[in-house]
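Example (one chain per record):
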Amino acid sequence: MKDARFHGTTDPMPGLALAEIVPAAARARALIARSKTHAALANDFPRVNGAAEMLDGLQYHFENYARHRQAMAPHDDAVLAHQRALVVDGSMAEPMARAVSETLEAAAEPLRGARHEVIAYLNVLGRYYYFARGLQPAFTRVVELLPIRHKVTAHRSIDMPKGESDNLRDIQAMALTTLAGHMYSFPGGRAELSFQVKVGDAPATGGFGDFIDICLERDHDVVSAECYAVLEVLLR
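Predicted structure:
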């Protein structure tokens, strides 16, 4: 059961060097198929192969998210045009704002889908983290995003409190729901969707507390690279 040689594995791209294979989920499958005699796969194949399946889960939820985002393109364009008008020509801001409102209804359903894919993505990421944490992973963005999984998606702090204030639990219960809304940023002349989650109370000295923004359009490549690196080191 634990030996990779008793299980079928398929190299998705046998003619390519690992470094050339994208996305990282496919590279992970190829790595395992090419490493069947490695001690980690001879002694612990179900656990390690399951981690590669989790990477595939991250890719799956990201691709679904990207399809929802593509369906939001008319609304994205209207939001971006409105932002440009505010900066360049204030007289155009009002008609551009109407265009934002007019495209919002059509964007509501794909926005709903995108939000639920983010929730699913974070839950898979949490599973991967618990696989990897004993291997001393070089995680940066994964660790930054993990509090959202702990406080909002895997379970909610309002249902399983761990010292949060009542106010923070209420705010976290609204995160990644229609009550909390969403944000746009505009790097390089394009609209990127993000969701902001409050993960820490405001300090007694003042301020707003700690927030984390998740934007799969930016985060996925970084997260999947960090996750793949764990398998790469393990099977070296």
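Caption: The beta strands are 183-185, 192-198, 211-214.
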